[in-house]
Amino acid sequence: MINKGLSYIGIFFLYLVSLLPFWFLYLISDVIFVLVYHVIGYRRGVVRENLANSFPEKSEAERREIERKFFRYFADLVVETVKCISISEKTILTRMNVLNTELLDEYFGKGKSVIGAVGHYGNWEIAAQRFSFITGERRMIIYKPLSNKIYDDFFIRIRSRFGATLVAMRNTLRKMAEYRKNLSISVLVADQTPVKHEAHYFTTFLNQPTAVFLGVEKVSKMLDAVVIFCDIKRVKRGYYTCTFVPLTETPKATAEYEITELHVKYLESMIRREPQYWLWSHRRWKFKPEDKH
To answer: I need a labelling partner for 51 at 20 to 30 A (CA). Which of 1, 8, 126, 210 fits?
Structure first.
């Protein structure tokens, strides 16, 4: 009961903070950066290990610069995500510019649904809300539920407040089968770490054997849906662009794991382009292929 009460208090506090203007939130971000990086050293060891394994060709100085830039951006990501609680439609449209929505119109005109793969890159929370305005067809976001039911319900309301349908990861195939006769665009975060018993496929990602979900491939083949990657770029503080990059228009004609390799390699190319905008504090490499045996 106490934990429940604290959760509601936390949500109320976050809502109040979200009402602050961006310029003030970025002042808070500056403080968060100093505390998290220089004082607390939040997950600094995890970030350094991930960077060292991912970029062995870079010098220690180069990796430390990426590390510092990551934590600088991470602080911005925190306050921007809080802002999403009360952000207006006008502000979302201004701050996340989708450059080629006509591509979706083209696919829908051909009677094809679309699967969008994304990574934990840039501000995926603003992107999720911007997603609600890209088409009048059904929009679905596949998400991994939080362990705290109160916060999980809260974030579902935030992400769906402009019309998107949230589907829990465990219900993905059932929901997709239910909607398969209707045109839709569904977005899946493709760089989640599967639990060990669900790690059925490993690939090389950022120089390391990496377990990957096969959801994008399975759903696209089931629906015969076009697969695109949502390429997010940070233009400047608080402003982003998103470009839809086609990966395959004929999923059923692809070989096993081909679609998975396509979206993994595309995400890697984005990370190598500007590595500071990926979530390096995430324990992405929890186990190796030999741990399965």
So the answer is: 126
Side chain identity at residue 215, one-letter code = G
pLDDT tens profile 54-83? 999 999 999 999 999 999 999 999 999 999
CB under 8 Å to 112, separation ≥6 — which residues?
Answer: 183, 224, 225, 226, 249
Q: Which of 37, 43, 26 is nearest to 68 (CA)?
A: 37
Residue whose tokens read 């002042």: 27
The rounded distance, in Å, linking the Cα atoms of 32 and 24 is 13
Residue 113 confidence class, pLDDT cut points 50, 70, 90: very high
CA distance 165 to 139: 6
**pLDDT tens track for 115-161:** 999 999 999 889 989 988 988 888 888 888 777 888 788 888 888 88
Strands (E), the chain: 96-98, 114-118, 138-143, 165-168, 184-189, 202-205, 208-211, 226-236, 239-248
Nearest to 104 by CA among 242, 209, 196, 5: 242
Return d(Cα 115, Cα 229) in angstroms, integer. Answer: 8
- Quickly state the pLDDT bin for 164 (edges 50, 70, 90): confident
- In the numeric block, the tokens 């500071």 are attached to 276
